[in-house]
């Protein structure tokens, strides 16, 4: 059972109390998870406003549905899953709304992730290139790859979050990697 | 769906796994593997840089995100039923579901052999209080003995603090764990 929050209460305790309606316990979970979920949403949506909406909607949905969560130990995977689904929904709406995917006014903020001028130019450019390539991955591949490589989750955890099997996760990560490697090879 | 093997027959996963060691004999000779290693190393290195930037400001949430979530949750109170605790000539005392849940949880906190998972309240047809307490028990306990203790403590505390007689207390053991 993980420790969470300044009181050091373990997550199981916070989740079960929150399930019974304890707002303070829920607040501790929000404090712990919202930065991680926001970072995750940013890597799926590349847009701060959308990421903020995604996390807020997901957290409130979690609050409403918490009593239905049967296994308190599954909270992390569960809330990541809600967040991921919310991100997918936001993307679907954005795709329907955009008339021209390459309209500069609709351009996601990935282009604002300019490399730090102080850092090695080569590292910065490679990073920017990888970010562009990640954005080009399909939704499914990107979600798995981000969770594995940037959030360092296990295949099992990822499988629970995206709602599929470990072997499917493994396949998606391998395909994502192949696409990224191909892109990096063509870049320089 | 499996990833396509490289032209030389190698599994790209194996090439990826082997990046940290130097190229093996085949990889040194094979132009396909050499190219694959080179591009994968770029991916690996740029990924490491990205990971190191997990705490960068551009990936940090707006400062008020957590507090707005909490404010909105406060508004969406999920359960706030009230129960009639005492009704006599002097009047009626009602208490909220939350107060009952908290009273029970606090009373059971000191019992080291258990952890309280859920406390659910309902009202029986005769207007009395019914409790369902879902607990997990530490390994090695005698379950019926512990369940009886939980029941007794919950009943006693509710009677003491809220002057509420509980008509029914169901104790359910959800799991047995070591801690």
UniProtKB/TrEMBL annotation, chain A:
It comes from the Bacteria. One of its GO terms (biological process) is DNA-templated transcription initiation. SUPFAM superfamilies: Sigma2 domain of RNA polymerase sigma factors (SSF88946), Sigma3 and sigma4 domains of RNA polymerase sigma factors (SSF88659). The keyword Zinc-finger does not apply. Residues 128-180 form the RNA polymerase sigma factor 70 region 4 type domain. GO terms for molecular function: DNA binding; sigma factor activity. Residues 29-89 form the RNA polymerase sigma-70 region domain. Keywords: DNA-binding, Sigma factor, Transcription, Transcription regulation. Belongs to the sigma-70 factor family. ECF subfamily. PANTHER family: RNA POLYMERASE ECF-TYPE SIGMA FACTO, RNA POLYMERASE SIGMA FACTOR HI_1459-RELATED. This is RNA polymerase sigma-70 factor (ECF subfamily). It comes from Propioniferax innocua. The lineage of its organism: Bacteria, Bacillati, Actinomycetota, Actinomycetes, Propionibacteriales.
UniProtKB/TrEMBL annotation, chain B:
InterPro entries: Asp23. It comes from the Bacteria. Belongs to the asp23 family. This is Uncharacterized protein. It comes from Propioniferax innocua.
């Amino acid at each position: 059972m993980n420790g969470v929050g300044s009181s050091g209460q373990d997550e199981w305790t916070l989740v079960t109390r929150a399930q019974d309606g304890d707002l303070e316990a829920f607040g501790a979970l929000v404090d712990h998870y919202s930065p991680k979920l926001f970072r995750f949403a940013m890597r799926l949506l590349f847009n701060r406003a959308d990421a903020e909406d995604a996390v807020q909607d997901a957290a409130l949905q979690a609050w409403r549905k918490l009593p239905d969560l049967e296994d308190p130990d599954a909270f992390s995977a569960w809330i990541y899953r809600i967040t991921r689904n919310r991100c997918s929904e936001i993307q679907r709406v954005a795709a329907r709304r955009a008339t021209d995917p390459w309209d500069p006014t609709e351009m996601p903020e990935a282009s604002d992730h300019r490399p730090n001028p102080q850092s090695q130019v080569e590292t910065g450019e490679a990073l920017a290139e990888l970010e562009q390539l990640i954005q080009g991955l399909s939704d499914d591949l990107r979600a798995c790859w981000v969770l594995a490589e940037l959030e360092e989750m296990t295949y099992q955890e990822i499988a629970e979050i995206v709602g599929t099997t470990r072997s499917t996760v493994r396949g998606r990560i391998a395909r994502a990697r192949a696409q990224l490697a191909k892109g990096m090879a063509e870049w320089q | 769906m499996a990833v396509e093997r490289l032209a030389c027959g190698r599994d790209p996963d194996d090439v990826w796994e082997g990046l940290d060691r130097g190229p093996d004999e085949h990889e040194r000779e094979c132009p396909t593997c050499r190219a694959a290693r080179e591009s994968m190393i770029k991916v690996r290195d740029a990924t490491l840089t990205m990971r190191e930037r997990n705490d960068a400001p551009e990936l940090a949430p707006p400062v008020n995100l957590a507090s707005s979530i909490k404010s909105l949750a406060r508004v969406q109170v999920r359960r706030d039923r009230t129960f009639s605790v005492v009704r006599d000539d002097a009047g009626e005392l009602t208490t909220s579901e939350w107060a009952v849940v908290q009273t029970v949880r606090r009373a059971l906190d000191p019992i080291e052999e258990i952890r309280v998972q859920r406390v659910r309240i309902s009202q029986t047809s005769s207007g009395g209080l019914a409790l369902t307490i879902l607990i997990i028990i530490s390994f090695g306990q005698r379950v019926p003995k512990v369940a009886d203790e939980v029941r007794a403590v919950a009943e006693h505390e509710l009677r003491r603090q809220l002057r509420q007689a509980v008509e029914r207390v169901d104790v359910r053991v959800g799991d047995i764990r070591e801690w």
